[in-house]
Amino acid sequence: MLNFGRGRTQTRSTRSMSLGGMDYPDPKKKSSFVGKILLAAGLTALCILMLKQSPSFNSPSPFSHQEDGVTHVLVTGGAGYIGSHATLRLLKDKYRVTIVDNLSRGNLGAVRVLQELFPEPGRLQFIYADLGDAKAVNKIFSENAFDAVMHFAAVAYVGESTLFPLKYYHNITSNTLVVLEAMAAHGVKKLIYSSTCATYGEPEKMPITEVTPQAPINPYGKAKKMAEDIILDYSKNSNMAVMILRYFNVIGSDPEGRLGEAPKPELREHGRISGACFDAASGIMPGLKVKGTDYDTPDGTCVRDYIDVTDLVDAHVKALEKAEPKKVGIYNVGTGKGRSVKEFVEACKQATGKPINVDYLPRRPGDYAKVYSDPSKIMRELNWTARYTDLKESLQTAWRWQQSHHGGYENI
Ligand SMILES: NC(=O)c1ccc[n+]([C@@H]2O[C@H](COP(=O)([O-])OP(=O)(O)OC[C@H]3O[C@@H](n4cnc5c(N)ncnc54)[C@H](O)[C@@H]3O)[C@@H](O)[C@H]2O)c1
């Protein structure tokens, strides 16, 4: 486990680096050898003394204790697409944030952007760890005083989940159990859980409400539903405040252009529609493959509900503010409006100003015709409404970031 925290941890490491950079004696000059050793020892002792007298040396890390008026949120998966945007919003709203991520899919570059925006001690720390490592997770919880957890970390591609189901059950279901056990053991009382409309499967009736029966049809959706069930069972006999947010299709990026979506190139084949459109618009891919034109929808292509990431993270903050002990809130997070793949591609062409070659192919097995949400519960109970509902604008924002970050975060 590596800890790239700001504040105390970083101050110490900076100092120890300067110790490491000290001049060591030249072995050829034997006459002064002993003297130099003594000098080095003296300097080392002096440095240790200075370090010990430094106010930050003995004082505990600001992350390790509760502070009046400060809410400390553990953001798992905070180096990823949605988690990094949520961290930005939390920091802007004066929350203290610890990101835990194993960087398997996220970007250290996103964490760096956040650290540069919020460099003050006690605002943001990054801990490199795998949530499958229960011992490491326990250590993190024992060394940090969290008030709440936003659990984003997950592998999250439907197609990949059908190829590697065990990976999905392990990473999503089993790791959620690890996080929940650590929360229970360390008395952390609020959980905001990232779930998905994939837990509903292929409902007959649209729009999808929170009482639409859940019948997931792929390992991704099933693993998320199992994780939800574990959380719900645990919450029955605990005083934990739980919010489960079932997102629809997430698009867009920070309107101020600081963060974006940068999946690893090797995951491109499993990627989402916005990434595929941008790849086609920028010439990385020769075109876009649209699978299925004979669905029972207005133009024959699949219909989905696209939610902008800025609205999504707003829903998280509202959920965090309204979470109450012993209560569970389950909410769909979508716009309530279905848009067809053809509409999406049209918006993408306008947003990028590029021609996009589209190949229309037969249906892909397992795809469903229409999925869109009824968001009235979250509007009513959390006073949340989607504001970024213009597809073209959301895609324009995301495209601007893509254009200024060729190669993702690694080339900045
Ligand atoms: N993007 C969408 O359209 C969408 C839709 C519905 C739900 N969700 C959910 O939202 C959450 C975030 O998704 P995203 O799109 O930001 O994905 P992402 O891949 O960009 O981010 C996930 C992050 O979790 C980290 N992670 C994965 N496994 C980990 C582990 N074992 N230990 C520590 N860190 C780990 C990754 O490194 C990555 O930084 C996921 O739970 C996903 O299921 C996403």
UniProtKB/TrEMBL annotation:
The keyword Amino-acid biosynthesis does not apply. Keywords: Carbohydrate metabolism, Isomerase, NAD. The keyword Isomerase applies. GO terms for molecular function: UDP-glucose 4-epimerase activity. Pfam families: GDP_Man_Dehyd (PF16363). GO terms for biological process: galactose metabolic process. Residues 8-18 have a biased composition (Low complexity). Residues 74-389 form the NAD(P)-binding domain. This is NAD(P)-binding domain-containing protein. The gene is LOC115991512.
